[in-house]
Design brief:
The chain has a two-stranded antiparallel ribbon with strand order 1-2. The protein is elongated and about 65 Å long. By secondary structure, the protein is mainly alpha-helical. A hairpin with a 2-residue loop joins strand 1 and strand 2.
Length: 131
């Protein structure tokens, strides 16, 4: 008899496993609101554990989703893709402010796995490539 079969046969063990799984889910759900971030991010939709805000993203028209979120949260908002946080800037004036007037702050960005997968190495610059 396997260990899993023995555990499932005892109702107390099943109850303990379900309680543990529920507590783990609740911890992951509320973990982000209890920890203090190093940076203050703009407002945005509350993320789910693991998937972030991907549940609200229209896979066929992600631009429509971002426009709707911009109407709700303003021209600058936070969007979570999985466990990664992204600051989304919409609208001509907000983009101009970020990229022209505050270029030193917004000019660099980290290389994320998404950029590596979809960019296929194009557009990324490493320290070794700097002149």
């Amino acid at each position: 008899m396997s260990v899993l079969t023995a555990l499932m046969a005892d109702s107390a063990s099943v109850t303990l496993i379900l309680i543990f799984a529920t507590l783990l889910f609740l911890y992951l759900l509320f973990k982000s609101s209890f920890k203090s971030d190093k940076y203050r991010f703009p407002p945005g939709p509350r993320p789910w554990p693991i998937i972030g805000n991907l549940d609200v993203l229209d896979k066929r028209r992600p631009d429509d989703t971002m426009c709707k979120l911009a109407q709700q949260y303003g021209e600058v908002f936070t969007f979570h893709m999985g466990t990664e946080k992204y600051v989304v800037i919409t609208g001509y004036e907000a983009v101009k402010e970020a990229l022209v007037n505050r270029a030193e702050v917004f000019g660099e960005r980290g290389i994320t796995p998404t950029i590596l997968v979809f960019g296929k190495g194009k557009g990324e610059k490493t320290q070794a490539e700097d002149p």
